[in-house]
Design a protein that fits this description.
The chain has helices at about 35-40, 60, 65-80, 115-125, 220-225, 310-315, 345; strands at about 15, 25-30, 30-35, 90, 95, 105-110, 140, 150, 155, 160, 170-175, 180, 185-190, 210-215, 220, 240, 245-250, 255, 275-280, 280-285, 295-300, 325-330, 355, 360, 370-375, 385-395. The protein is of the alpha+beta class and about 400 residues long. The protein has two domains: about 15-95, Roll (SH3 type barrels); about 105-395, Fumarylacetoacetase-like, C-terminal domain (Fumarylacetoacetate hydrolase, domain 2), CATH 3.90.850. Strands 6, 7, 8, 13, 14, 16, 17 and 22 form an eight-stranded mixed beta sheet that branches. It has a five-stranded antiparallel beta sheet with strand order 4-3-2-1-5. The chain has a five-stranded mixed beta sheet with strand order 9-26-25-20-21, with no helix packed on it. A hairpin with a 6-residue loop joins strand 1 (about 15) and strand 2. The longest helix is centred in the N-terminal third of the chain and has 17 residues, at about 65-80. The protein is globular, with a radius of gyration of 21 Å.
């Protein structure tokens, strides 16, 4: 029995590589990975499709659908309760965790009203912080799935065009000077309906498999210069980090709560009586190169104005396709107080108020900084851990 968040009530899925063997699918139980391919060979687990647990990502399993997900989870809980053979157990410190999914598509939303309000106050002082459409739909953009990387993968400071020093001047070119993180919660999906058929908000439960922690790295200066009129581009597409373990939505059922009251009431296709908020505690720590971590933010995902169900229902209302392994991220998760903000631009208030870290201060990220994001749930049911996602900033590349 584990009360560390990795017990039988959790059993998150990941992809691992052990010495002498190819990548394959496992679930985490305590401080070990349970090798599903061994359970299949022992007759303790049935594969929905032959070889689906011998693949280097979860996409094949996600394509099997909710009935297969539910049956597999039940069989795993039964097998682990009965006792799995030693050959199926791999200590975490003896394996390498890989990217759990290979996203065909990646969508990033802008779902925290606190975050959107803070940025609106910075960039449109004296005006209305929220754009006219913000309370009517989950604003989002299509990201670059090829830049989605596993935790522990270093992220290189990007090059790009930077804003002119004066109005009407020529833009500068060089490495971003305002590199930032964004604390987000993501979800991955199975296959949805055929192209042209919307996915109703009451049907999204059948399509959402589970959640990961997401760090959507951001170059604020590149983004500021480029985002009008079509939105984020190079300032976002250089790196998005996700945690190693995909926690099934089934494991989070005790932590589903009502989301914030929405005013005005959303349009009919975005309405549901189901509780789609998630009571998940999150924190961000920053460690300078060679230094210790400093926790610089703590917040909770339950405050997100737009829920996962609304995000997916909106993303598909025009008939856009949902495919197994797709990644949808919440956008920065911020609370209402300074210590609960999910990005450096908010924590330092656009660079005006440096935050303290071990050995100094930061307004934005410096080369060598490591960002660690963690998440988990407790109090409403069994302790459930989401693990962490971490990445270190490398210096910008040199152009030949």
């Amino acid at each position: 029995m584990h009360n560390d968040g990795w017990g039988i009530e959790n059993l998150p899925y990941g992809v691992f590589n052990a010495p002498g063997g190819p990548p394959r699918v496992g679930v985490r139980y305590g401080d070990q990975v349970v090798d599903l391919t061994v359970l299949v060979k022992r007759g303790m687990l049935r594969e929905p499709i032959d070889g689906v647990f011998s693949q280097r990502d979860l996409n094949g399993f996600l394509a099997c659908g909710r009935s297969a997900w539910t049956a597999t989870r039940g069989a795993l809980q039964e097998a682990i309760s009965s006792g799995v053979p030693d050959e199926a157990l791999r200590p975490l410190d003896e394996v390498a965790m890989l990217r759990p999914v290979r996203p065909p598509d990646y969508v990033d939303f802008y779902s925290s009203i606190e975050h959107a309000t803070n940025l609106g106050k910075m960039f449109r002082p004296g005006g209305e912080p929220l754009m006219e459409n913000w309370r009517w739909l989950p604003v989002g953009y299509h990201g670059r799935s090829s830049s989605v990387v596993a935790t522990e993968t270093p992220v290189r400071r990007p090059l790009g065009q930077l804003p002119p020093k004066s109005d009407g001047g020529e833009p500068r070119f060089g490495p971003s000077r305002r590199l930032d993180f964004e604390l987000e919660l993501g979800f991955v999906t199975g296959d949805g309906p055929a192209m042209g058929e919307p996915l109703s908000i009451e049907e999204v439960r059948e399509t959402i498999f589970g959640v990961v922690i997401v760090n959507d790295w951001s170059a604020r200066d590149i983004q500021k210069w480029e985002y009008q009129p079509l939105g984020p581009f190079l300032g976002k597409s250089f790196g998005t980090s996700i945690s190693a373990w995909v926690v099934p939505l089934d494991a989070l059922e005790p932590y589903r709560v009502a989301g914030p009251r929405q005013h005005p009431a959303p349009l009919e296709y975005l309405r549901t009586e189901q509780p789609w908020g998630l009571d998940i505690e999150l924190e961000v720590a920053l460690a300078p190169e060679g230094g210790e971590e400093t926790v610089i933010s703590r917040t909770n995902a339950r405050g997100l104005y737009w829920t996962m169900a609304q995000q997916l229902a909106h993303a598909t209302i025009n008939g856009a396709r949902v495919r197994a392994g797709d990644l949808y991220a919440s956008g920065t998760i911020s609370g209402s107080a300074p210590g609960t903000y999910g990005s450096m631009i908010e924590l330092s208030w656009n660079g005006e108020q440096p935050i303290k870290v071990e050995g100094g201060e930061r307004t934005f990220l410096e080369d060598g900084d490591m960002v660690v994001m963690r998440g988990g749930c407790s109090g409403r049911g069994p302790v459930i851990s989401l693990g962490d996602v971490r990445g270190t900033v490398l210096g910008a590349p040199e152009l030949s």
